[in-house]
Each structure stands twice: as C-alpha cells, then as structure tokens.
Amino acid sequence: MTKQLNLLWLQSGGCGGCTMSLLNAESPDVLSCLDMAGINLLWHPSLSLETGQDVSDILHAIVEGEIQLDILCLEGSVICGPNNTGKFHMLAGTGEPMMHWIERLSVKAEYVVAVGTCAAYGGITAAGGNPSDACGMQYDGEKKGGLLGAQFRSRSNMPVVNIAGCPTHPNWVTDTLAEIAIGDFTEANMDSLGRPRSYADQLVHHGCTRNEFYEFKASAEKPSDLGCMMEHMGCVGTQAHADCNTRLWNGEGSCIRGGYACINCTAPGFEEPGHVFTQTPKIAGIPVGLPTDMPKAWFVALASLSKAATPERLKKNAVADHVEIAPSIHLKGKT
Amino acid sequence: MSRKIIGPFNRVEGDLEVQLDIEAGQVNDAWVVSPMYRGFEQMLHGKSPMDAMSYVPRICGICSVAQSVAAAYAIADAQGVQMPRNGELATNLILANENLADHLTHFYMFFMPDFTREIYQSESWYAGVTQRFTAVKGTAAKDMLPARAQFMHMMGMLAGKWPHTLSIQPGGTSRAITSVEKVRLLGVLYQFRSFLENTLFGDKLENIANLSSVKSLQTWLVQEQHEQSDFGMFLQIADSLNLAVMGNATDHFMSFGVYPKDGQRLFQAGVWKDGVVSHLQPETIKEDVSHSWMKKGSDPKHPREGVTIPDPDMKDGYTWCKAPRLAGDVVEVGALARQIVNGHPLIKSLVAESGGNVRNRIVARLLELALVVIEMETWVKEVEPEQPFYHISSMPNEAEGSGLMEAARGSLGHWIRVKNGRILNYQIIAPTTWNFAPRDMHGQLGALEQALLGAPIREGEETPVSVQHIVRSFDPCMVCTVH
Q: Contact B110/A32, CB-based, under 8 Å?
C-alpha cells in the first residue's frame, strides 16, 4: 500500500450521523484506519482544517483534473428540490446547488461511495411527502436511477457503492474503504442493492440475544420487556440485512440489545414502513412480515407449536424488564 | 467597504455560509446563512405521534439523543405520563453521554485546530499547539478519539447504539440496568474521568468544578503542570490572543434547564440579563420569518401555532433558519448560558469581567465536562435495578405538549399538537436556531451576527481567522438549526 488514495467527503441532505458514528471506530480509531489503508483526506467537513476559499479551491482543482480523486464519499441524500433546482441545498460559498457539485465530482472519481441510507437511497430525508425531493446517488428508494442514473459507472467501472445504514456502523465504512484501497473491492462484493456483502449478506437476527424468546414466541409487550419484539413491537430483525448483533455497536450494543425494534435501516424505503415503526402490523394475528426465506405455512405451524410449548420461565421473563426466573440447574451427581 | 462570502464553513455540524461587510480592518455587518433545508416539520405532519421517536433523532447525528429526549418530553407532556425514577436516571445518563462527547469533539476536533494556522506561527505557543492540534495528524485527536469511543460504550449498554436510538421513550427507557451493569457503567466513567484528569485538565475534576473566580482560574493555571494540560494550553492561547474580548453577542442568556431528578433540574431553567436571573417564560417565545426563505404569515408565532412553508425565492429572505425571539429579544444559548443561569461562580465571575465571548464559551463547555461526570457517577449509583424503568402510557386522540431541555449546544424545544390521533403540527426550535438566527422584522441581528460585528480582519486574509474562532465558539449545529 504505497500509493496514497485521495478521498473527498461531502455532506448534503442528512444529519451528519454517519460521520459521528465513524468517530466511534475503535482499535484502531478512524484516523489510524485511514492512515493504515493509505487514504489521504483531501477534505472532510468535520475533520479538515480547510474552510471557505480553500475548500472551493480543492473542489475546482478536482473538477479541472488537477487533483486526482480516487474515492468520493457522499453522506446525506442528494437534494433536488424545489422543482429540480437544488436550491434546498446550495453549497455554501459557491452559489451553486450541491447536487451539481456531486454530479461534476462523481464523474472524476475512481470510486463513488454513498455513505448511509440517505446517500444510497434517499433515506429518512425522503420521508413523508419528501419535502426536499431527496434521492440517493444511484437509487430513488428501491428504484435504480437517483441523481447519477441507473447506467452510471465511476472511472473504475463500478456502480455506486451503497454503504447503507442509519447510521452506518463505523466498521462498515472503514472496512469497505480499506478493501477499496487495497484493490480487493469489486462488484462481486456488492449485493443486488449495491451494499457491501461483508455485512449485508447477514441478518440482524443472527446473534440476537432474544433468540430463545423468538424460538418459543415469548413476546415483549412494551418497551423494557425482555421478550422477542417481532410479534408486537415492530422488530424486523429477521428480515433486515446487517450484522448488528454479531458486530456490535459502541462496544456492546445493538438496537435489539438496547430494548427496541430493528427498523431495517439498511433497506431502501425503511423511512416509510407503512405502519407505526414500533408496532407490528398483523393479519389475523399473524405478523405481516415473515422471517426471510421462511415459507409462510411453516412459520404459522411452527409458531403455533412453539407457542404451545413455551416454558413458564420464558413466558414470565418475556414481559419483565429483568430475569424473573433463572434457567434451571441440572446436576450430574446423584446426591 | 467590501463583501466577503465565506463557505463552505466547516468543522461545524452541517453546511454554513457567513457573509461579511468589511471596513477599516473589521467586520462592519454580518449575515449568517443556513443553506440547507430538509423539512422534518413537514414530514411529521399526519404521522402517528409515536413515529416522532423514530424520525426526530435523525434530524441530527451529533444531537440525536437530545432530539429524542425533547420529543419524549413533548409526547409525555401530551400523554400526561411521568417517567419512573430509573427511567429519568437512565435518560440523564444517555443524554449526558452525548452532551459531554459533543463538548469533547468540539474542543479537540472543531475548535482547537484553528490555532495551528500559519498566521500564528510567530506565537510562542505555536509549535506545541501545532504538534498537538493539527487537523487529522495531531497527537490530540489520537488521544481523544479512543477515550471518546470508550466513553460511548455507555451508549452501547443503555441506548443500543449512537446516534439514533429508540431506547428513550415518553414513559421511560427500554433498557433496564442490572445490578452488575451499574459496576460496568462506573468502570466506563472511571476510564473517562482518567482521560479528563490526565489529559484535558491535568487535575482532579473536583478541583476544576470548584474553580470559583477569574482569579482562581489564573492561579490554577500557573500551579503545578497545569499549563501543559490541553485546557491550560487553551487558556494561554486565550490570553495571548485576547479571546475574551472577541465575539460578544447580546449578553442575554437563556437556558431551558436539564437533567431532571425528583422534580428538580440539575441545571435550572431561566434567563440571565445584567446580573439578574429571572424565570423562563416559554409563552413569550415567538418565531419571526421576515428574513427567512419561508412564506410570510402575519406576525411572529409561538411554535404551538408555528408554520413552516419553505420558499427559496422569498423577498428579504437569506437563510432557511427562522428567527426565534424571547419576548422579542435576541438571546444566546449554550453551555455558557446554562452555567450563568445556574449560577456557577466561575462563570459568573468570567461574565462579570468580560461578558459572553470566545474564551468564556469554551471555558463553560469544559467546566461542564467536570461538573457532569461527577454527577453521572451519582446517577449510576442511584439506579435501583429492581424498580421499573418504563411506565405504560397512551396518547389521547387530541392533545398538545411541549418538551423543553438543554442539548450540548443549548436550549432545544419541541412542540406537538395531536388531532384524531395524528400529528397536526410539530415545531422544533434548536439551540443553533437561537444563536444563528437571521434578522427579525425589527432589524435586530441574530446572536452570531451581533457577535461578529467588530471582528478584526488581518491584512490579506481570505477567510478571517477571528471570524472562524467566533463562529466555532458557539459550537454550531447547522443540521439542527433548520431541520
């Protein structure tokens, strides 16, 4: 890794939370990660010294081809409104819509990386009536297109890499950037929604600590209950693509371990689930969303069977905020 | 007279533009532009009230928990529910975790790197500061980032993750704390305390918390090795560059109060002016849109009646930010405001000497790191694992509520109105909305606009460094400002 790669990071229609999450990277920290991967920050809104004119100079130099741009990261969605003018975000100091800057810089980049669900698909900024006409770099929700168009390829002949998540786990970003830097990241590393398969080929359900409650359909009924949150609390961890329960957050957390539902924040359109986020929609008492790859009839049959077999311990603990009944102890000795 | 347009203004959260008229080597007039609009208030219209808990943290990646807490308070107010004591303690811990991490990020990553600019190379402290605080490459960030990340393990334990948690709810928290977890939380705090005492302050937190006057601060600085601590380094820079006469705004401060326990807030709500603290009267808050890119209504409105209809071509508009006023007045919010309102003796003494300015804003923020960590240790010990963390509540079909609290950057308010079980109106006034507001219908400049007047411009400066110190001394969050 002798060659330094130049990375430019821009923020538009988002909250900056993916950068804040990135600062949570540990062993090593984010600055060490970039150093290790041979990535040189041309500019980052939260980290770099340059402000004002110095930033405009960097952007112009990239557009003019005077500075090589290896990786362009956008955090936050592309803001197209109102009426496709982009006036809802004029890049400060430049008098030009941010979406034009993103377009011009994208064609100069070897790799274009959408950091977070906003940049990838539109995300939370596109919720409700999408007041700012937000979209993703290469997607508008589930539909390919977005700002750059379905056919877009960056200079390395790659589509936009969608590190989706709201926010992104710090290591989803550092891992992907490092894989790009050592030349190991190809289209084969991306799933059909452009997400790195390193984390998107897994389900949030994997490693869920409420697994035993799930098995016996012992369900939580209110926040702070210990039971499975699929039946009542809106949890879609069995369908959400991410490794949140095997690669934890902030040392030892995940949404589910924090006592609340997985809301599938790595998926396009998660911002409008069509029901209250924290309530499971049901038809005839059966959750509408079933575990991924699970045939419905089997799920219904197994669920009713396991419900009939739920041990008392799980029934009680599922609706308590601490363990009321501990697992029994079996001794081998015949005393 | 010449006009300067500065942007993209970085090391603030989000995008910012500052326009200046410069005459005779100083800023003669200023306009603060918040250049991005997303429209959360519009998005929330028609949603289920509980969905606010999923949307509002995503207004901001750096004040995410603060947004959750304000929403939880507003909904709890509408529902008439009270968190159990454990829920209150856990919420305070999560919020304090964010607020303190933000203070740290601001000092180390956003504010201090400006002193490494070449313009200061003849200063006696330049070599040391450059080695320590150079952006990306300095030694300070490498010390601070792991300490901050480990401190935020508290989020992993209590909030699942940061940013954007759903563990904070109107009726309490979704994550009960077990007895052994109390010990582990104390471990996290112990480690963070060590970083603050060894690296930031070079002294016990209690000694920082007990500083009581300008004089005691000066004495402290020259004792032992305090000058070599990061705080000590800042105080010397502040002295040599006269940061205490830079960036005065209105010297009229407001705090909504924060960290409730047993019916009292650790830092009290109130308003400070001319040495007198008075009661906060939230009913006198009104938002003026005369200079915003917003459709003009009649008179400024209380947020309960607030309207948000964006229009980029609005006459006289120059920012997406509205102009909130307290009984018609421009007030400053933030750690300095919080501590003067709460009557901390060091802050009272600093403000009596020089008002609200760049130095005093930074000192107040760092002081809070000491004050609040000490308090967090108590909160952890007070958690009673056998008692509930959450109370069930339900939303009436028609209700209204408000949630007023303090984020790291100052006073944050949410106002909700519910009709037919849906959100009829949701209005938010964020800390930086107060500080970075535009002019109002009476021509009063916003707090930062006032603070920039008179800022010295050095010969040949493209992006004046004094302006950067003043802007960043507020620790602005632009994504919250407009939301």
A: no
Q: B350, B272 in Cβ contact below 8 A?
A: no
Q: And the tokens for B195?
A: 């970083």
Q: Which is nearest to B77 in space by CA: B411, B404, B307?
A: B404
Residue B2 confidence (pLDDT): 86
**Mean pLDDT across the stretch B157-165?**
98
Q: What percent of chain B has pLDDT over 90?
A: 98
Question: Which of A84, A224, A275, A277 is the best substitution to test chain B (most B C-beta atoms within 10 A)?
Answer: A224
Structure tokens at B154: 């508290």
Q: A27: distance to nearest CA of chain B, Å?
A: 8
Contact B479 A18 (CB under 8 A): no
Interface contact B152, partner A, CB < 8 A: yes
Alpha helices in B223-325 (DSSP H): 230-240
Name residues whose C-beta falls within 8 Å of residue B292's C-beta, 6 or more positions apart in sequence: B314, B317, B319, B320, B321, B322, B323, B438
Give the CATH architecture of domain B2-482.
Orthogonal Bundle (1.10)
Q: Sketch the domain layout of chain A as residue ranges.
A: 5-200, 202-321
| Both tokens assigned to B80 | 């008439």
- Interface confidence, given as ipTM, is 0.97
CB-nearest partner of A17 from B9, B48, B164: B164
Whether A1 shows a pLDDT value over 60: the answer reads: no
pTM: 0.98
> Residue B167 — pLDDT band, cuts 50, 70, 90?
very high
Cβ-nearest to B48 among A47, A56, A276: A276
Q: Chain A within 8 Å of B13 (Cβ-Cβ)? A: yes
Contacts of B43 in chain A (CB under 8 A): 127-129, 131
Our CA-based measurement puts residue B188 at a distance from the nearest CA of chain A, in whole angstroms, of 11
Looking at CATH, the fold of the domain delimited by A202-321 is given as Cytochrome-c3 Hydrogenase; Chain A, domain 2 (4.10.480)
Q: Show residues of chain B in contact with A30, CB under 8 Å.
A: 145
In this prediction, what percent of chain A has a pLDDT beyond 70?
Answer: 99
Q: What is the pLDDT of residues B128-152, one digit of tens each?
A: 999 999 999 999 999 999 999 999 9
- For residue B91, which of B188, B149, B177 has the smallest C-alpha distance? B177
**CA-based nearest distance A112→chain B, Å:** 21
Mean pLDDT of A286-302: 91
A-B C-beta contacts closer than 8 Å: 284
DSSP secondary structure, B125-189, as one string: THHHHHHHH-TTTSHHHHHHHHHHHHHTHHHHHHTSSSSS-S-EETTEESS---HHHHHHHHHHH
Residue A34 to chain B, least CA–CA distance (Å): 10
Judge if A5-200 and A202-321 fold alike in CATH terms: no
d(CA B30, CA A240): 48
Residues of B in contact with A263 (CB under 8 A): 54, 166
Q: pLDDT of B246-258, one tens digit each?
A: 999 999 999 999 9
Q: Does domain A5-200 have CATH number 3.40.50.700?
A: yes
- Cross-chain residue pair B310–A131, CB shorter than 8 Å: yes
Q: Across the interface, do A54 and B463 touch by the CB < 8 Å criterion?
A: yes
* Whole-number pLDDT of residue A335: 61
Structure tokens at A314: 């799980």
- Tens digit of pLDDT for each residue in B84-132? 999 999 999 999 999 999 999 999 999 999 999 999 999 999 999 999 9
pLDDT in tens, B183-209: 999 999 999 999 999 999 999 999 999
Q: Which pLDDT tens digit goes with each residue over A167-225?
A: 999 999 999 999 999 999 999 999 999 999 999 999 999 999 999 999 999 999 999 99
> What are the extents of the domains in chain B?
2-482
